[in-house]
Design the sequence.
């Protein structure tokens, strides 16, 4: 009989936590998620309080890094890092015998980690945090943008990503809708914007990109479509395109 690992999922992105918990449902005979945390400080508190066997730990969080979380712990759970670092930087984790999952997380890679847990019971007895940090620092990504610049004549307004509900392409322009109901115009294409926006945004239609953190409800719709009701002032209802069906299923773990 497999050992059951009680786990905490730690990531500052709600969508990432939802996806991880969804993927772990397939392995509920090995891993039981008992809590989640969206900040480093919350993670330390819950780990000390609940004493989990395993944590899935994001490296980059706004208050504490994953490394700083580990340094504050008196408990020693198994650790599986989740990271968006490029593949070549991952050699650092392999050097220090730490298990990791590269974002976006793939089911087959998670299965490898689960199998390793089942075989060995413990992934890392001791972690050389200093040495790992030194190597990772060499590949540190530049600070990501936190706002979308919107030009109005000679004026440039910075619309913070967390205040954007969705973007809609109309003719040659894109309208950016904020959660308070305001509408902003940008001359950048939806395709170009999709490359600049952070991971919390996902394209659901040739004309729509939505902020996954601003979804109030999500419903299955006919003809392989989904209906999204947004958490904005208008309670906007957006229907996905049929060609985005597989992408949405993958993104939301459906």
Sequence:
């Amino acid at each position: 009989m497999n050992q059951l690992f009680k786990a905490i999922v730690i990531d500052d992105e709600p969508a990432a936590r939802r996806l991880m918990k969804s993927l772990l449902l397939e392995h509920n005979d090995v891993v039981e998620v008992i809590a989640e945390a969206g900040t480093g400080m919350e993670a330390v508190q819950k780990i000390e309080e609940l004493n989990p066997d395993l944590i899935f730990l994001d490296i980059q969080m706004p208050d504490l890094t994953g490394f700083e979380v580990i340094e504050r712990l008196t408990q020693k759970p198994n650790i599986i890092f989740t990271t968006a670092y490029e593949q070549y930087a991952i050699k650092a984790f392999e050097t220090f015998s730490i298990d990791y999952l590269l974002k976006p997380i793939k089911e087959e890679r998670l299965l490898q980690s689960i199998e390793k847990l089942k075989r060995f019971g413990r992934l890392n007895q001791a972690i050389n945090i200093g040495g790992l940090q030194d190597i990772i620092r060499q590949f540190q990504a530049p600070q990501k943008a936190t706002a979308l610049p919107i030009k109005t004549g000679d004026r440039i307004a910075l619309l913070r990503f967390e205040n954007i509900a969705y973007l809609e392409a109309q003719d040659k322009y894109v309208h950016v809708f904020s959660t308070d109901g305001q509408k902003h115009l940008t001359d950048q294409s939806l395709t170009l914007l999709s490359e600049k926006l952070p991971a919390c945004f996902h394209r659901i239609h040739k004309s729509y990109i939505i902020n996954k953190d601003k979804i109030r409800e999500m419903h299955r719709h006919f003809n392989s479509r989904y209906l999204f009701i947004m958490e904005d002032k208008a309670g906007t209802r957006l229907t996905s395109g049929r060609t985005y069906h597989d992408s949405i299923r993958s993104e939301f773990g459906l």
About this structure: The chain has a mean pLDDT of 83. DSSP finds eight helices and 15 strands in the chain.
